[in-house]
């Protein structure tokens, strides 16, 4: 509550290295004013909230697509038929969805984010100006930080028409989020990227999801954010690291679409800042607990690093450096977990416990400023 001081006790997952300390946090006017160590006997675990660094919230209108014919234990999947513009399943559904229903569906996913401990997200918003406006409308009154990355509706039209639409989209968004460097004539894509930079907005793009044939093209566009990099090789990762471009991975989504798994350990070893997102809502919920558990159990990555990928690194990607970690002077975006729940009772290491087994029902409360 603004104007009053709150004192929150428990095991604090504090600082940029997410070190657990037993103690307390003082919060006043939405800012952390003090962090102290003391034995207090509280079973609460106080942790940074999540950042969902890559979503497609328009997909909230279709949460149970038919994924193909089941053959034994294998599901045959075709990524292009699901998500490639302009004729993929999601695009056909979005074209047929009434504006009011789109807003309501997106709003449901935003509420789900809040209830599951997420305080910020970055969305690739299809549908041009109308699509960006739908997300902005759904966000009204929501306690969420957002990065809205729009895109033109028909980028294959004559270039002057496309660039005029891009300029209108940029008025209603934080930048552009393009589907991939192979999905559009490349010289045209370069003009779109250049227009975005001239307007001092963010340019993000999918790359290396099905194969690595579009990675070099994507890098030549000097993007601010790259998504997926499932098929990236060491030379790609070294170049991305040298350019200082952050990468957002989507492990559950990549598993569902059958494109393979991003080389997360190699990305981290190369020095790339890696964040995570839940990607298409039609394939996965926006629950970042599920993303963490999947990542921890599938990849050989330290649990603290997994938690950082899903929290602090996402804050960096979104430009929210003063909001990510629990430090004096930072904004207070905290989730308070019940360390005495039937699920978490008995854990010895709070980081391991949160990453491997915590669930939304372990949340006692969320503080977002």
List the main descriptive attributes of the protein structure presented here:
17 strands, alpha/beta, six-stranded mixed sheet, 2 domains, Urease, subunit C, domain 1, 369 residues, nine-stranded parallel sheet, TIM Barrel
Describe this structure in words.
- The strands form three sheets. This protein has a nine-stranded parallel sheet. A six-stranded mixed sheet has the order 3-2-1-4-16-17, with no helix packed on it.
- Helix content is 35%, strand content 24%.
- The chain is α/β, with parallel strands linked by helices and 369 residues long.
- Helix 8 links the parallel strand 12 and strand 13.
- The protein is globular.
- It folds into two domains: 89 residues, Urease, subunit C, domain 1 (Roll); 268 residues, Alpha-Beta Barrel (TIM Barrel).
Helical stretch tally: 14
Query: What is the second-level CATH architecture of the largest domain?
Result: Alpha-Beta Barrel
Helical/strand content category: alpha/beta
Strand order in space, largest sheet: 14-13-12-11-10-9-8-5-15
How much of the sequence is in beta strands? 15-25%
CATH topology of the largest domain: TIM Barrel
Distance between the termini: 10 Å
In total, how many beta strands?
Answer: 17
Biggest sheet record: 9 strands, parallel
Please tell me what the overall shape is.
globular
CATH class category label of the largest domain: Alpha Beta
């Amino acid at each position: 509550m603004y104007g009053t001081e709150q004192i929150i006790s428990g095991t604090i997952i504090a600082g940029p290295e997410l070190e657990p300390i037993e103690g307390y946090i003082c919060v006043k006017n939405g800012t952390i004013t003090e962090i102290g160590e003391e034995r207090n006997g509280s079973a609460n675990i106080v942790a940074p909230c999540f950042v969902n660094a890559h979503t497609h919230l328009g997909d909230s209108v279709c949460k149970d697509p038919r994924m193909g014919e089941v053959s034994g234990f294998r599901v045959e999947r075709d990524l292009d038929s699901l998500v490639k513009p302009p004729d993929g399943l999601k695009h056909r559904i979005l074209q047929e969805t009434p504006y009011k229903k789109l807003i309501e569906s997106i709003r449901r996913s935003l509420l789900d984010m809040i209830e599951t401990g997420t305080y910020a997200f970055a969305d690739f918003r299809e549908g041009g100006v109308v699509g960006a406006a739908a997300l902005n409308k759904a966000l009204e009154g929501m306690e969420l930080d957002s990065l809205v990355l729009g895109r033109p509706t028909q980028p294959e039209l004559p270039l002057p028409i496309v660039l005029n639409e891009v300029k209108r989209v940029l008025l209603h968004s934080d930048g552009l989020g393009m589907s991939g460097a192979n999905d559009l004539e490349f010289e045209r894509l370069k003009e779109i990227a250049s227009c975005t930079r001239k307007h001092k907005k963010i340019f993000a793009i999918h790359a290396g999801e099905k194969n690595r044939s579009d990675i070099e093209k994507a890098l030549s566009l000097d993007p601010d954010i790259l998504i997926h990099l499932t098929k990236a090789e060491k030379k790609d990762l070294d170049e991305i690291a040298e350019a200082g471009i952050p990468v957002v991975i989507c492990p559950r989504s990549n598993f569902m679409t059958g494109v393979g798994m991003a080389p997360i350990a190699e990305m981290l070893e190369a020095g790339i800042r890696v964040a995570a997102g839940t990607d298409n809502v039609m394939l996965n919920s926006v629950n970042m607990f599920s993303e963490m558990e999947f990542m921890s159990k599938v990849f050989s990555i330290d649990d603290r690093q997994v938690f950082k990928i899903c929290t602090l690194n996402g804050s960096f990607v979104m430009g929210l450096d003063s909001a990510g970690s629990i430090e004096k002077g930072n904004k207070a975006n905290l989730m308070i977990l019940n360390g005495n729940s039937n699920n978490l009772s008995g854990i010895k290491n709070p980081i391991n416990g949160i990453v491997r087994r915590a669930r939304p029902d372990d949340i006692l409360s969320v503080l977002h400023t």
